[in-house]
């Protein structure tokens, strides 16, 4: 048990170390958040492949000790998410928003420029409402079409926090994945821990 706690703490430090933000770009809305925590995105947020209550927003709620709103919808592209942003997220007046978006744009081979224009618009609208934004990026070897670099660019330009690859160490490993795309309970627990490590300095 003690060994597991040490490993978990070390993992949290590693996550904090690889959060991407330009040194001259402050985190926007980094002051203490006032308002609920909302997880916004696609099936990775919704929890496809997880047992009941084991999706990453539910696990994050346990780590934070506060309710977390799951605003994930399977199959969403960045365009779909932008269309429902006001109804499903801004209507809650969130203090913190965690995002997993872009995977379906990549899978469906939608234009990269369009996908990240949508993502930037989502981030900026959330920030204008006062929310701190954390983005879970995706890096897919060989087939990533430059998405990894685009996550970094958009987050540098907006002052959002970025976890460069929310899948790091999970993809291709059966013990963490329920299918080739979606984590299982163990994988979602790791995702929750990564988002929690990113948020910890701002809570």
Please explain how this structure is put together.
- This protein is α/β, with parallel strands linked by helices.
- The chain contains 8 helices and 5 strands, in the order αβααβαβααβαβα.
- It has a 5-stranded parallel β-sheet, with helices on both faces.
- Helix 3 packs across helix 8, helix 4 (78-88) packs parallel to helix 6 and helix 6 packs parallel to helix 7.
List the helices and strands and how they pair.
Elements: H1 2-18, E1 37-41, H2 43-46, H3 56-64, E2 68-72, H4 78-88, E3 96-100, H5 103-107, H6 112-128, E4 132-136, H7 147-158, E5 161-163, H8 185-199
Parallel strand pairs: 1-2, 1-3, 3-4, 4-5
Cα-atom radius of gyration: 16 Å
What gross morphology would you assign? globular
What series of H and E elements makes up the topology? HEHHEHEHHEHEH
Question: Which consecutive residue ranges, at least 5 long each, have pLDDT under 50?
Answer: 1-18
Quick one: CATH superfamily? Answer: SGNH hydrolase
Give the % helix.
40-55%
Structural class: alpha/beta
- Order of strands across the widest beta sheet? 2-1-3-4-5
Strands, count: 5
Terminus-to-terminus distance: 26 Å
Please name the CATH topology: Rossmann fold
């Amino acid at each position: 048990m003690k060994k597991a706690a040490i490993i978990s703490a070390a993992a949290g430090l590693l996550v904090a170390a690889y959060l991407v933000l330009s040194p001259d770009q402050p985190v926007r809305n980094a002051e203490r958040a006032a308002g609920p925590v909302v997880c916004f995105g696609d099936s990775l947020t919704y929890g496809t492949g997880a047992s009941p209550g084991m999706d990453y927003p539910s696990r994050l709620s346990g780590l934070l000790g506060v309710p977390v709103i799951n605003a994930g919808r399977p199959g969403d592209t960045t365009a779909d998410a932008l269309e429902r942003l006001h109804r499903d997220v801004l209507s809650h007046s969130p203090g913190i928003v965690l995002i997993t978006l872009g995977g379906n744009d990549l899978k469906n081979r939608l234009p990269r420029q369009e996908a990240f224009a949508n993502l930037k618009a989502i981030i900026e609208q959330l920030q204008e409402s006062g929310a701190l934004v954390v983005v879970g990026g995706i890096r897919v070897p060989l087939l990533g079409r430059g998405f990894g670099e685009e996550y970094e660019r958009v987050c540098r330009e907006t002052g959002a926090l970025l976890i460069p690859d929310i899948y790091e160490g999970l993809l291709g490993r059966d013990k963490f994945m329920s299918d080739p795309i979606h984590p299982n309970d163990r994988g979602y627990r790791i995702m929750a821990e990564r988002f929690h490590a990113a948020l910890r300095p701002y809570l």
